Amino acid sequence: MKAERLVAALLVLQARGRVTAPELARELEVSERTARRDLEALSAAGLPVYAQAGRNGGWELLGGARTDLSGLTAAEARALFLVAGPQAATPDVKAALRKLVRALPPTFRASAEAAASAVMIDPAGWDRERITPPTPPHLALLRNAVIDGVQVQIAYAGRDRVESERTCSPLGLVAKGRVWYLVANTDKGLRTFRVDRMRSVDATQVPVDRPADFDLESTWEDVLASLDERRMPATATLHVEEGMLGILRFVLGTRVRPTGNMVDGATSTVEVVVRGHSPEMLARHLAGFGASVHCVEPAEVRVHLGRIGAELRERYGDVAD
């Protein structure tokens, strides 16, 4: 986990004052190339980490050796947590970040915590897995507005391409598929905006009234549930052999959701719900799996499957095995 290594590399620098890439590689049990990349990432993030050339050179954290994070400036602490935050997917990394927050001066903690939770990477595309999103204009400004806790004024083009001026309170940024989304409070409640539809963004000095219990990950899960219902309103409940579940997900991607319900009398069968644009389109997608999946409901999808099966039998029924 890169975030964990970045934090560890910073602590090694604080303890020793200066370290070479080979020394850091041995300390972190990684390759020398990886250690050098991590040091460059810390420097690129705005931390005072510099390479010193020469016989006695190495990488140095300006300000001398320190055993805690109290020597970092507010901007430097924010940069570190911004780099580590989106990658803090494991409990160990999250626990490390919490400890680092407690090591910061009280005046820096709020900014560091905001940076760690400002951005979320949803690795699954809408219908396929693991797509790297491009960086749209205004992303950096929005990210800073989330961290600083200030409202923004945006010129936004809707689906009909009609632009409107809006004022919103940014709460977090999420990358899903090839698209970045801003989760924000508005005078009409919580809304999600595509960053690539923003024509302009201006930060204000008006503070954001951030809900005390706001959590970006859980909020995004609620957003996904709502968006999926609008994008693909039709659903079908299937019983699928466990061995076929991976293939079903490969073909239909994130539209496949296990229900967690047990299937009576079957130990290797799972129940899933699949979404689609319409019952007919769902049937067309499922027909390719033949008898490997059993559509339990709704009846409309089953009728379409029966019709498709009859059409295929009529056309190919006389083909020899």
Secondary structure layout:
Layout: H1 2-16, E1 18-19, H2 21-28, H3 32-44, E2 49-52, E3 58-61, H4 74-84, H5 91-103, H6 106-116, E4 119-122, H7 139-148, E5 150-157, E6 163-176, E7 179-186, E8 189-194, E9 198-207, H8 216-231, E10 234-241, H9 242-252, E11 256-258, E12 269-276, H10 279-287, E13 293-297, H11 299-316
Parallel strand pairs: 4-6
Antiparallel strand pairs: 1-3, 2-3, 5-6, 5-9, 6-7, 7-8, 10-12, 10-13, 11-12
Helix pairs in contact: 1-3, 2-3, 4-6, 6-7, 10-11
Description:
The structure is a single chain. With 321 residues, the protein is of the alpha+beta class. It has 3 domains: 2-116, Arc Repressor Mutant, subunit A; 139-220, SH3 type barrels, CATH 2.30.30.520; 232-316, Alpha-Beta Plaits (2-Layer Sandwich), CATH 3.30.70. Helix content is 42%, strand content 26%. It is built from 11 helices and 13 strands. Strands 4, 5, 6, 7, 8 and 9 form a 6-stranded mixed β-sheet that branches. It has a 4-stranded antiparallel β-sheet with strand order 11-12-10-13. Strands 1-3-2 form a 3-stranded antiparallel β-sheet. Strand 2 and strand 3 (58-61) form a beta hairpin. Helix 2 (21-28) packs across helix 3, helix 4 (74-84) runs parallel beside helix 6 (106-116) and helix 6 (106-116) crosses helix 7 (139-148). The longest helix has 18 residues, at 299-316. The chain is extended and about 80 Å long. The model is unreliable at 64-68 (pLDDT under 50).
